[in-house]
């Protein structure tokens, strides 16, 4: 049996680093950074990391809302969603994540599109 995606991404430490980089990349991306103007960056990083940890087979440490509840009323566009995926790929590349794991992460993220875009 192969290791979980959580393990292959470096466990809690590896995923936390990826999530921290992802949030930093989002904040620098003009296509989506306005969404985060009044955000608590440390809370964003913690939420992203714990969501990612739980979603990849690690311990269920996420205490936030589900994706639909989190994004309800935000009317996120398809272009913004694609910018998030591009940022995720950049964070994965920055952390030297292997191709198979990058594909798995992007597949999972893309599968959440109905709960994020135009709701």
Automatic annotation (TrEMBL):
Keywords: Heme, Iron, Metal-binding, Transport
Cofactor(s) needed for function: heme
PROSITE patterns named in the record: GLOBIN_FAM_2
Keyword Metal-binding among record annotations: yes
UniProt-listed InterPro entries: Globin-like_sf, Globin/Proto, Globin_bac-like_CS, Hemoglobin_trunc
Pfam families given in the database record: Bac_globin
Coiled-coil ranges (or none): none
Keyword Metal-binding carried by entry: yes
Name of the molecule in the record: Group 1 truncated hemoglobin
